[in-house]
Amino acid sequence: MRLVRFRRDDRIATGVLEDDHVHPLRGTFFENPVPTGERLSLAEVRLLAPTIPSKVVCVGRNYQEHAEELGNEVPEEPLIFLKPSTAVTGPGDPIPLPTLSHQVEHEGELAVVIGRLARHVPAEEAGRFILGYTCGNDVTARDLQRADGQWTRAKGFDGFCPLGPWIETALDPTDVGVECRVNGERRQYGRTSELAFGVGTIVEYVTRVMTLLPGDVLMTGTPAGVGPLSPGDVVEVEVEGLGVLSNEVVPGD
Ligand code: MG
User: Fold this and answer.
1) 204 and 101 both lie in a single domain
2) What is the per-residue pLDDT across 134-182, written as a single tens digit (0 to 9) for each?
3) Cα(166) to centroid(ligand 1), Å
4) Distance from Cα 23 to the centre of ligand 1, integer Å
5) CA–CA dist 248, 182 (Å, integer)
């Protein structure tokens, strides 16, 4: 099932996407939503980020080839960091290039959307706490990441966490392709079977530290091939069996 958030005129709502139609829901995804009985054409609505997380928890250096391309090793335990909720944007939203950075890069990733309050969840039970999956772009100011020693600025600008286009509830995340294209050209590709730490392990590791709330997002790490973005570029993140998240890069402030 594909779960969407959408805007139509002044109304923002959740819904289920079937073919080219959205069936709106009453309420959130997390509290027994009920179909309203309406049926809207996909062309009539604008899709939004499919979740409004309280936080986005990311895993760094989770694909060996990507760790190596930046001169790092895969860590012995998951290396986690946060992106603020204000970084989240939706499909079709612009990615603004901040004037503070001269090297902003794409990181296409499989994103996990949490469905239930999760605390101390064993890896083998993680599936019960996951609503579904979406495409994510862990946009990174690489020059600030190198300069700062920690990553809050580099990862935290407004618009640096595009998510979407929807939440796929039926995806098996153990071996799907993750691809990032810029202007139609493939820049990154990997398979989630190459993840040093899989989804269950990430859920267990993170929930030993902090409670995950419904709608929170885990970014599973990016495959090799990260590279710079320029104004006018169109970045697409595609997760096999899920869909394509597309965003245009624009000058920021
Ligand atoms: Mg990343």
Assistant:
1) yes
2) 999 999 999 999 999 999 999 999 999 999 999 999 999 999 999 999 9
3) 20
4) 33
5) 10
